[in-house]
Amino acid sequence: MAGSGGASLLLAPLLLLLLLAAPLLAQPAGEAACRPARAAFQALQPGAKWVPESPVPGSDLQVCTPKGSTCCSRRMEEKYQAVARQNMEQLLQSASMELKFLVIQNAAVFQEAFEIVVRHARNFTNSMFRNHYKSMGPRALKFVGELFTDISLYILGSDISVNDMINEFFDSLFPLVYSHLINPGFPDPSVEMTECLRAARRDLKAFGNYPKMMMTQVSKSLQATRVFLQALNLGIEVINTTDHLKLGKECGRALLKMWYCSHCQGLLLAKPCAGYCGAVVYGCLAGVGEIDRHWREYISSLEGLTKGMHGVYDMEHVLLNLFSLVRDAVVYVQKNGGKLSATVSRLCGHAQQRQYRSTNYPEDLFIDKKVLKVSHVGLEETLSSRRRCCLGVQDELDMTELIMKLKSHSDFYSSLPEYICNHSSAVQNDTICWNGQEVVERNGAKAQPGNHEGKMKGPEPVISQIIDKLKHINQLLKGMALPRRKATDKTPEEVEEESGDCDDEDDCGRGSGDGELRVRNQLRFLAELAYDLDMDDTSANKLLNQHSKDGAAVPSTDPSSAAPQPSPTAAIALALLLGCWP
User: Fold this and answer.
1) pTM of the predicted model, to two decimals?
2) Alpha carbon of 378 to those of 128, 368, 384: distances in Å?
3) Would you state the torsion angle of the CA atoms of residues 371, 373, 375, 381, taken in this order, to the nearest 10 degrees?
4) Could you tell me if residue 62 is inside a domain?
5) Would 340 be classed as within a structural domain?
6) Residue 59: inside a domain, yes or no?
7) What phi and psi values does residue 433 have, to the nearest 5 degrees?
8) What is the pLDDT along the chain (582 residues), one digit of tens a residue?
9) What processes does the entry annotate via GO biological process terms (predicted)?
């Protein structure tokens, strides 16, 4: 019994091989011989007019050249090759679907979150002027709106200089502060006087070192944010490029041979050998494989940037505390009003009209710092209570979560051939398989591909371009990553405070330390997409729906417009991302 059982096992592979080869071994004459090939072809390409009625020599075939007769025509060969290319394209898109959704989803959510942070920061600054500098508050809102509009545009890729936008803000603010707080009661300065004050502001260091501190903090945080978004958008471009890869002529012929030439011999059930499939796909994607090293470096560099986005690199922390820097800068002008007034009289005396000082000083000339401090803390408590109400600690979106998911796709390009063969019709466990010429044993020597199947070709121009872009963004990411801190007893907060390059004589040692928001490497506004502070927003002075440098539409951040409201797609993506979908 045992002997007969062993013989049965040995005969099984041979019987299966005979069954697969039966259509050609029997080779019945007439129409019946090509009937299976006709049915298979018609399932892929409606219309059987190109299928021979009976086996033909096939001398005109270029790829599926037969050893004997064949059931394929030249036109069938062309159609099969088109289908093979289409199959490959669909498999590539299927392979990248999860990764593509991950990057697109996060790029949209983070961009919207950054815009919300900018909007809240603008509201805080507007509120500070309205509540504590009533006489000049309405006019100051215009300059605040312009500053934060420029900040939004910069994050989205505009060529605006951070230093220029901050200098413009303080240049515009100084004539207003001077006329309302230093020389109250005077009529508004003339155009000539205003221009003189604007021009003199930097030489006078009217706001002390606060503009420089703001430039340092805003520049570093916005650069990191901008590069982060650029990197995510480039990730989408990289995936799209490989999704819509144009396969070369040799690749199309190899795919045809692997997937459909067996049909011409009537071997409809034969599947490609695993090693043969791997060699063919690897040869087709040889250029794409060149992306692998740069893709891994991209994820590693992106991780380095996100780890460093704290302190002066944390845009949420910096922008939400920007109003306190502006407040301290205005207070600095008030404290040095006498000295500034005398200097301005010398510099701009020719432009200053003789005016009589009014005895009625505006009520906001002298500011109670305790009130400012209480108001500052009040804003924070209101915001914190909103966060506690709307967002639990476990639901906070951490950039590390995105990086962890990206790292699980770090081998995406190197594993593409394996994915495609596993999800196509390649044989994994069957005893026999198709090697492009004939049906053979899966583990036999004939199942291994010939050298011609694995020919490597240099990357296509489009792949070379995407590699160059990856190299460039990787350099930017590495340049923005926070350098390793040397052994020191200083905390990150102390290192951050030193970055302002503030001198004692500038009286800016306090910075924005009172009630300062301490944050982690997380964005906490993602649950507040529908949340607005109870403040009247000044209308944007520069429309944000203009096109960026690359031609992409830039959404408006004006809360009165529809742009800041989350789209249904963004809301769904956000719910999925935070795991809150009911």
Assistant:
1) 0.71
2) 12, 15, 10
3) -150
4) no
5) yes
6) no
7) -155, 170
8) 444 444 443 334 443 444 444 444 444 445 567 888 888 888 887 666 777 878 888 788 889 988 888 888 888 899 999 999 999 999 999 999 999 999 999 999 999 999 999 999 999 999 999 998 988 888 899 999 999 999 999 999 999 999 999 999 999 999 999 888 888 766 677 888 889 989 989 988 999 999 999 999 999 999 999 999 999 999 999 999 988 888 889 999 999 999 999 988 888 888 899 889 999 999 999 889 999 999 999 999 999 999 888 767 889 999 999 999 999 999 999 999 889 888 888 888 765 544 334 334 444 444 444 434 434 444 444 344 333 333 332 233 568 899 999 999 999 999 999 999 988 876 665 678 898 888 887 665 455 555 445 455 556 789 999 999 999 999 999 988 755 444 344 444 444 444 444 443 444 444 433 333 333 334 444 333 333 333 333 333 332 333 333 433 333 333 333 333 444 444 434 443 444 443
9) cell migration; positive regulation of canonical Wnt signaling pathway; regulation of protein localization to membrane
Please indicate, yes or no, if residue 199 is contained in any of the structural domains: yes
Report helix, strand or coil for 582: coil
Q: Which domain holds residue 114?
A: 90-483+495-578
- End-to-end Cα separation, the chain, in angstroms: 61
> Total domain count for the chain?
1
